[in-house]
Amino acid sequence: MGRHRPIFVKPQPSGEVSVAMQIDPVADLFPGEAPPRRSAVPGIIIVTVCLAVFALITWAAVAELDQITRGDGKVVPSKRVQVAQNLEGGIVSEIAVMAGDRVEPGDLLIRLDSTQFGADYEQSRTDFLAARARLARLAAEARFEAPAFAPDLPAEMIEVERSIHAARAAELAASLAMVDAQSRQRQEALNEARAALDAAGRRRALAAEELDVLGPLVARGLAPKLERIRAEQRLAEAEGAIEAGRLAVARADAAIDEVEQQRRTTRERFRTRAIEELATAKLDHDRLVEQLPALVDKVRRTEVRSPVKGIVNRVLVTTEGGVATPGQPLAEIVPVEDTLLIDAEVKPADIAFLHPGQPARVKLTAYDYSVYGMLDAEVETIGADAVVKEDGSSSYLVKVRTTGAALTAPDGHPLEIIPGMVAQVDILTGRRTVLDYLLKPVVKLREMALTER
Q1: Superfamily assignment of 66-78+337-448 in CATH?
Q2: Which helix (H) or strand (E) holds 268?
Q3: Span 35-42, mean pLDDT?
Q4: What is the CATH number of domain 82-111+303-334?
Q5: Strand 303-305 versus strand 323-324 pairing type
Q6: Using CA atoms, how far apart are residues 65 and 58, in angstroms rounded to an integer?
Q7: Rounded to whole angstroms, how far apart are CA atoms 351 and 388?
Q8: Is the pLDDT reported for residue 170 higher than 80?
């Protein structure tokens, strides 16, 4: 059949097969040779492209990208500039810092002369210690005891109070000695009165016995009547002596009671004086207790120290030996904290997607973020209304606080960040797939198509 190939076979009614022949153009081009086979490369390329497109679409539908709202701002102090002052003022004796110095809380800024305040404090402290020693002595005197002093009191003050106590104790002892002498005299008088009373009682008994004996004798005429009269007289005298003795004993007892009362009065007078002086000393002591902290504070305030960690912005006194008036600003400190506060300006078109608490990233223009990195942050507050600038543009003020306060150089040392540095703030408002980004123009076109007039 040569260069002719069968194309199809059609059954014949007679049962024979008839082969239709068709001329093969390829075989005609290559006489005497088998025709070449078709290549599979184009099919493979088509399949590969289709798979790549499918994979790309799948990735675009799954992969998510951050939605970012950007704003420009600057680093601001989270606290207002701190002004160092002194309440009383005084003579400037030392200026310890310069503008630009970094200070920690409590670092010395300005020292004022403390001579006058120091002298007032030392005098009040001396008076306070003396008041304590005096209180100890007077409290002991009020109890009629020897004073016991605190070991931290100066020895000379203790010696002074011991001397005063010894003098007063001697005075009290002398007064009581006089009372004791009077008491002894009164006791002797009492003893004499009692002895006289006893003697009068014995005489009365003898006179009564004598009268009892003479009575019957005189009645019988055996003894003269005069003897009985004399016996009666002696009895009357004895009874009179007894009465006088009783009165003398009573007077002596009263005199002794008077002396004892005088003793008690002397002791009570001593105690009363001690209590009165103790009350006065207590008032002085309490006044000094309240006064000393104020004087200590005055002395302490002569050293004007930084209230916060920060950077010295300005030193407002420049002359050592100059006079600072009461309340005069002496230095300004810009606070530096462990976190930074960024004031960022955001366009009104982007503000609807912002809310406090959203994560953010801060890039400082002074440091290349590709080299030194960025600071993680969080949205703290969002302005309630847009702020219109002089050029007519408007923006919302968004405050962003960082979680750290320093960047690190490649060699490991920290980089200084100070208020005023310009920053770019990227606020993460959500996530979208790549396919959403690619289809966004199509969606917008579909929404706007065929709607024009």
Answers
A1: Efflux pump adaptor protein, beta barrel domain (2.40.30.170)
A2: helix 225-301
A3: 65
A4: 2.40.50.100
A5: unpaired
A6: 15
A7: 15
A8: yes
User: CA dist 11 to 5, 256, 295, Å?
Assistant: 18, 175, 132
Select from 186, 190, 192 the least CA-distant residue to 250: 190
What whole-number distance in Å separates Cα of residue 320 and Cα of residue 322?
5
Distance of alpha carbon 360 from alpha carbon 367, whole angstroms: 18
Q: E strands within 104-152?
A: 108-112
Assign 272 to helix, strand or coil: helix
Q: Rounded to an integer, what distance in angstroms lies between the CA atom of residue 351 and that of residue 206?
A: 135
* Tokens coding 194: 């009692």
Which of the given ranges, 54-63, 289-298, 386-395, 415-424, has the highest pLDDT on average?
A: 289-298
Alpha carbon 426 to chain centroid distance? 38
Question: Full-prediction pTM beyond 0.70?
Answer: no
Distance of CA 85 to the CA centre of its chain: 21
Residue 400 contacts residue 341 (beta carbons within 8 Å):
yes
pLDDT of residue 22: 47
Asked if residues 110 and 321 have their Cβ atoms less than 8 Å apart, the reply is no
Angle at the Cα of 421 (from 403 to 316), degrees rounded to 5? 105
Q: Pick the range with the lowest mean pLDDT from 2-11, 182-191, 256-265, 313-322.
A: 2-11
Asked if residue 26 has pLDDT above 50, the reply is no
Residue 340 has pLDDT above 50, yes or no: yes
Domain ranges for the chain:
1-36, 66-78+337-448, 82-111+303-334, 117-301
Q: Hey, do 66-78+337-448 and 82-111+303-334 end up sharing a CATH topology, with the first three levels equal?
A: no
Q: Which pLDDT does position 444 carry in this prediction?
A: 66
